[in-house]
Amino acid sequence: MLQTLNIKNVALIKSLSIDFGSGLNILLGETGAGKSIIFDSLNFALGAKPDKTLLRSNEPEMRVEALFTNINSQAKTFMQSLGFDDEEILISRTLNLDGKSAIRINGQIATQSLLKQVGSALLDSYSQHESIELLNSKNHLQLLDRYDNDAIAPIKENLKLEYANYNDLIKKINSLGGDKFEREHEKSLLNYQITEIEQADIKEDEDIQVKERLDLMNSSEKIFNAISSCQSLLSDNGDSCLNNLDYAISSLVSVSNFDSIASCHQRLESAKYEIEDIYETLADIKNNTEFDEREYEQLDLRYDTIKNIFKKYGGTYQIVQEFLSKAKARLNELEDSDFLIEKYQKEKNELYDKMLKTAKDLSATRKKIALIIENKIKQELSALGMKSSIFNINFEETEISSNGIDKVEFVFSANLGQQSKSLAKTASGGELSRFMLAFKNIFSENESVETLIFDEIDAGISGETGVIVGEKLSSIKKHAQIICITHLPQVASFGDDFYFVSKTESDGQTYTHVKHLEGDEIVYNLAKMISGQVSNIALSHAQEMRDKNYLIHQ
């Protein structure tokens, strides 16, 4: 249940805290006092789209906090699935002048999407002008399924799995290339690609090696001259590096018995061996840099082949090999395609029959549930003074999907002889209010929602019908907490807790206030609703109405 609602800087509300009771909470007050602002604040806290026009003038930020306690087991299980394993749920939401909204659930930062899920589990709101869900026929199938989810959910889960498997088989069949001509065309292309790659016979890193050899040959004259000059300086003349090293080594032989000189002697010998090795390596390179035009043409042609294969099939040796492997696998698959298509087609047909049976089972279950809903709605509407009304749930068969084969629409006629039509086209404001009350009454028995909000559910009705509406609200409060705005004393007289909403003006500002009414204050306000003025007769009538309607229905 909603235990506490704290509102700050929302429209006419500067700062307000309301503690609600667990039963039927009645909000009273003159039009424009701010009753609907309280509901707007609550809807904002539970995920409604942020509206900067709600922010109180000259204030930087508005804040709404909603504390839910005594959460029932079904709602608690759902909340646990969302990651909130708590006995209480505290929702806090702010909105500033820049339009930025911050949301926290039990202190954790949350998204608007998550907030809406939490809000839908804890509270269900209805106002005469916000019954979009019920009026939109696209939602009717979902509403029907919600009525008996225990019966519907297992069948829908099976159908969803079968439908997914069915689509997987269609994808497999399509992946085999469509008709026979298309498959043959693809096989021909794959054969060409495989042959081209295999005939190229490219080795790993061959592109690098060929490129290096070509670069070497392109610079052969420059390399030959540079190496020749280097060789001359190292060894090919009397004043060469190696000859001078020999003289240097010889000059130290006679004193190499001294440790410090022996070390230098050894290092000079090592340097000589290293330079000799460099000389021989350069000689090998020089011998291989002679430009061979025939070799160059062959390498150039090979490099073009490698680049062409890489360009067509992936860019690197590894990617080309992966392409080749996949092409061979695909070709093998296509070679067996006739067999596989026949196999998959048989499985698809069998699965379709199974899926269709599940969809028909689902439809049959829905139709049984629909009859129950129809009968209960008719009983409720009759009790609400609409004895001649007609309510039906129409079914139309559609293409099979993961949701079944049913298209559902709620149709309604309020008067005898009037053709049943969609709710949106038929019901007047007062009729829709009563229909919604009937709908909420039968659904509240099956659903886990904690709190129901009714904003002027009594619009368009009066007198005895108002008493019946009050009785229905008293019935619903056995399953859920109710917070209701009403202008009818007949409805209000059934309340458990009363809150009087008023507004005052001070220092050029308007402020909304809420007072929790007790005892005689309740009767006084009922009398005011009855006659507009409080007289002894009105007070007596109000007390009688209160005693009759409230005490009897406890």
Short description:
With 554 residues, the chain is α/β, with parallel strands linked by helices. It has helices at 35-45, 73-81, 112-122, 132-135, 140-147, 149-175, 180-200, 206-218, 220-234, 241-253, 259-288, 293-313, 317-335, 337-383, 423-426, 429-444, 463-476, 489-492, 520-531, 536-551, and strands at residues 2-10, 13-19, 24-28, 61-68, 89-96, 101-105, 108-109, 123-127, 390-401, 404-413, 421-422, 451-455, 481-485, 497-506, 509-517. Among the domains are: 2-134 and 446-517, P-loop containing nucleotide triphosphate hydrolases (Rossmann fold), CATH 3.40.50.300; 180-335, no CATH class.
Mean pLDDT: 86
The CATH topology of the domain at 2-134 and 446-517: Rossmann fold
Based on secondary structure, the structural category is: alpha/beta
**Spatial ordering of strands, largest sheet:** 2-1-4-5-6-7
Rounded to the nearest angstrom, the radius of gyration is: 44 Å
- By CATH, the architecture of the domain at 2-134 and 446-517 is named 3-Layer(aba) Sandwich
Distance between the ends: 19 Å
The global form is: elongated
Count helical runs.
20
Uncertain stretches of 5 or more adjacent residues: none
Main sheet: strands, sense, barrel: 6 strands, antiparallel
Query: How much helix, percentage-wise, in residues?
Result: 55-70%
List keywords for this structure.
six-stranded antiparallel beta sheet, 57% helix, 18% strand, 554 residues, six-stranded mixed beta sheet, 20 helices
Description:
This protein has 20 helices and 15 strands. It has 554 residues and is an alpha/beta fold. Among the domains are: 205 residues, P-loop containing nucleotide triphosphate hydrolases (Rossmann fold, 3-Layer(aba) Sandwich), CATH 3.40.50; 156 residues, no CATH class. The strands form 3 sheets. Strands 2-1-4-5-6-7 form a 6-stranded antiparallel sheet, covered by helices on one side. It is elongated. The two termini are 19 Å apart.
